[in-house]
Structures are given as structure tokens and as C-alpha cells.
Amino acid sequence: xxxxxxxxxxxxxxxxxxxxxxxxxxxxxxxxxxxxxxxxxxxxxxxxxxxxxxxxxxxxxxxxxxxxxxxxxxxxxxxxxxxxxxxxxxxxxxxxxxxxxxxxxxxxxxxxxxxxxxxxxxxxxxxxxxxxxxxxxxxxxxxxxxxxxxxxxxxxxxxxxxxxxxxxxxxxxxxxxxxxxxxxxxxxxxxxxxxxxxxxxxxxxxxxxxxxxxxxxxxxxxxxxxxxxxxxxxxxxxxxxxxxxxxxxxxxxxxxxxxxxxxxxxxxxxxxxxxxxxxxxxxxxxxxxxxxxxxxxxxxxxxxxxxxxxxxxxxxxxxxxxxxxxxxxxxxxxxxxxxxxxxxxxxxxxxxxxxxxxxxxxxxxxxxxxxxxxxxxxxxxxxxxxxxxxxxxxxxxxxxxxxxxxxxxxxxxx
Amino acid sequence: xxxxxxxxxxxxxxxxxxxxxxxxxxxxxxxxxxxxxxxxxxxxxxxxxxxxxxxxxxxxxxxxxxxxxxxxxxxxxxxxxxxxxxxxxxxxxxxxxxxxxxxxxxxxxxxxxxxxxxxxxxxxxxxxxxxxxxxxxxxxxxxxxxxxxxxxxxxxxxxxxxxxxxxxx
Lengths: 414, 169
Description:
The complex is a heterodimer of chains A (414) and B (169). Chain A has 414 residues and is an alpha+beta fold. Chain A has helices at residues 9-19, 29-41, 45-50, 54-64, 189-198, 209-216, 274-283, 377-380, 387-393; strands at residues 66-69, 84-87, 123-124, 126-130, 141-144, 162-166, 175-181, 222-225, 234-238, 250-255, 261-267, 286-291, 296-299, 308-317, 327-334, 341-349, 363-366, 369-375, 395-397, 408-411. In chain A, strand 6 (162-166) and strand 7 form a beta hairpin. In chain A, helix 4 crosses helix 5 (189-198) and helix 4 (54-64) packs antiparallel against helix 6 (209-216). The longest helix of chain A is centred in the N-terminal third of the chain and has 13 residues, at 29-41. Chain B is mainly α. Helix content of chain B is 67%, strand content 0%. Chain B has 8 helices and no strands. Chain B is globular. Chain B starts with 7 loop residues before the first helix and ends in a 5-residue tail after the last helix. The interface between A and B is large, with 77 and 93 residues.
């Protein structure tokens, strides 16, 4: 006899999740850490945060599948021009592109503004792009900085896109992602060269366009020319022929003044003014060899200990917004190659330091900031006599006001 | 190559949350073997972000979002990439399967019949106890889509469970 008693999805799911659970598990936390560390070192961080970037996905798609280009309009949803279909060539060899140009074998052009830190030497933080205007009422934070300089796996930081984020990475609100690619070729040629220059891959050995389209869930991407940005071309990108933005949100790509390509990807923005917002963000973007000030300086370390900056980012309030929180993360490595060890300096305003950081690690409060040295002291002591406390003693707080920060992160090394 | 020494706070966190993560993954994919793969991928992705993620206010939510994204990504793939070696841990895949098999199979079949995003919506709403707004954020869709997916998913579940003889909650 069929019995249906008070169907309760919560209780039913709870029961299912527990009742059928095998007592043994293949989960391996230590292996996850090893794999995750390698993943981090390969700077696939950007894609991991959002699943993968729509920009990267579309870059890969367009290598293999036809790309539709519609008539030019100022916004993503307008225009009635009939789509034009062109076929982008494979990236494995130079081939004529849609514009009749050839993509050179060595199409990668290093981004300016990123200097490779060297062991035991002073270091100034530089970036190749910064946000200018942002809708401060909806994206309260700006997070920027080269994600990881570690070249242990020979990926070469210049080959990856530089990325920055406007919006809280830990929150659920709107987010505007910026990616700047080391690719000096045009749309859709951007996508042709994308896989070769930027190390984009889907990690699964995609074999053909059908599989790729299936993997990405995008099918064939559609490009629609957008307004010129500082006299350079731009495109809206969508998976829909009507340029409707779904899934990961709006994607806007444009050529920069220094002949690279930038991609803005937005999620959670108000759709009614989305186009205008992204166009304005693009138009006010700062491109070039730019200072990235940090709230601390690491002063007077002996060159002999070989400290090498490995990862940096800063979180600052969006100009015009009402957010006051800020933080910074400075990672450093000691030793070389596979025998290196890492530690991090975590920096927050004194009264906002998360309790979850630096359990048991040395910290100090100075000039309105709390700074903690996070890592394995015993490992660091293999390279630095005095370990984490010694390193922390060489950190100078510049205070919570970004106006007093400095891009000169490591100074007076001797 | 010398192994990387995992951050202690990551190991500590995952030792507390691994089972929960695995259960969420199972409800999404309906297969304990695949659930282990999904959970392993999610842990790996979390560790790749750990220098930042460790300070997140809602770390559970962040990890949940990762595993949901892993699941939705995999549903779009025509293959399943194994990331965990099956013989690594000397497992007995049939161990401890002493449970209410009929009821579990009914619900599993019903869940399995739902489209992936409807299933994810149901799991997030009723197992992870997320609001409509939170679920919309996690799935990158509108609140209206969450509501419609919830209604359709629940309706389909009820229909399927009725057809299968019901479930005792």
C-alpha cells in the first residue's frame, strides 16, 4: 500500500544524505592541500573563484567554434542587425583570421607594470591596470594585486591575465571583474591567440567544438561591436543571439591604449544601466605601469635570508562608496624551487582583524593596523633565524589611510 | 619534490566540514562515488584560495558555492574526470549501506529525475537552508528563477514520489 505522509523535503533530504552514506570516504584533505597549492601556484585562482571566467571560457570557445558578430550598437541588448557568422581559425598554427590578418606564432606581449620579485632584493609593487570610476554604491571594495608570482611550475606570470575585482570577494553582492590579457591581437583574433598566450585551458582535454560547447554551456558565443573606448574597438559578448546576458553575467571586452585586450565581467549589477556602467568603467580604466600602494613596508632585512615576495593584494574601499574596511595580504617565500617555504603577512585595521587568522602566530598592533605573520615558524626558521617574530619586527605599519601607503614594499635590504 | 606543508587551519577546518561537504555533494549528484570526487575538487579549489578564504566571514557558504559550481560544471561535461584514485584508500564501496533502502531509493530516483539546476535549487533551499535570495546568488540567477525552480522541483518530486509510493519524512 502506498503511503504518503507529510512530504517534507528538508527532512527527506536530511534522511537521504545520512542514510545512504558509506562509512568509508575517499576524501583526502592533505591531497587537496597539495593539489590546491599547485593550483594556486599556477594562478588558476581566478577561474576557481568563479567556476571559470567567462572571458577565459569564451576565449577557448572561439578557438574552435564559429563566432557570430552582429551589427554595432552601444548596448548589449539593442540592435536588429542580422548576425554575421565567421569562423575563427585554430590556434595551433598561424592562420588567416576574420580580418584577414595572421596571428603570429609568438603573439604574446608581456604586460607592462608587473615586475618579477627577486630573492633578497627590494621590491616595488606595480600593476598594469587599475580601476578608475566605479559604482561605489554597489561595489564597495576594490581588490587588486598580482595574485601569485611563483614561477615554480614555469607558467610565467606574464603569460596570465592580470585580474582585479571590484566588489566583496567574500560577500554575495555585485562583482565587476577586470582581466587584462597579454595578447596584442584583435577581436575575434583575441580568442584565437588566447589559449596560447594566457595558458587558458579547460583541464579536461577538450577535443572538438561540440564537446567544448557542451562543457561550457555557452554554445556559440555572439559578439556585438560596442562603442569605442578611448578610440579603440570594443565588443559585447553573449551566449544569446539577442545579446541577453545569462549565467556569469555581462561580458564586455575592449582594446586598451597599449594594444592589449581587457575584459570586464559583471555579475549582479542592475540590468537597466548595466551597459552604461560597464562602458564607463572601461572608459575610466587606468592602463600602464602603475603603483600599487601597500599599508606596510618590510624594512631592512638581510639579503642573505633570500626573502622573495610571492603574492600580494590589497583591499581598499571604492572611491565614492561608504565602505571603510581594508586589508592586505603579502605573501613571501624563502628557499628555492620545490624546497621553498611560504609565509604571509595579514594586515587589517586593529579592530577588524578576523579571529580566524593567525591562531598562535605572532602579531603586532601599530599605527592603527594589526599585522600578523602567518606560517609555520619551524619551517621559516630553517631560512630565517628568529623565524616569524624576526620578520614581523621588520614590518612597518603605514596606517589605515591609503593616502599614506607606499608601493615600495621591500626597502633597505642589505 | 618536497611536499607542500598544508596550512594547519585548513586541515582543521576540513576535518570538521568534510562530511557535511560530502553530503551536500551527494545530494547534488546522487552518487557517493561522484560525491567524493566533487568534494575532493571543492577542497582543492578551496585550498587554492585559502590565503584569502581563511578570513571569509561565511566560509561554509563559500565552500558550498564551490561544490555547487563543481557540480554544475560537471553536468555540462560529456565526461567525468576522476580526480581521486579509487584504490588509494582501500575502500569498500558497499560498506555501511544499512539504511531505509526503499525510501532512499524513491527520493534518489525522484531527485535524479530533476534537471541539474532544479536539483541544486532544491538542495540549497531545503538541505542547506538557504533563502531564495541566497540561492539566487549561489546559482547566479534571479530570485524569480529560484522560486520557479523550487516550485517546479517540489512539484516534480511530489509527483514522482507519489508515483513511486511516497516517502516517509
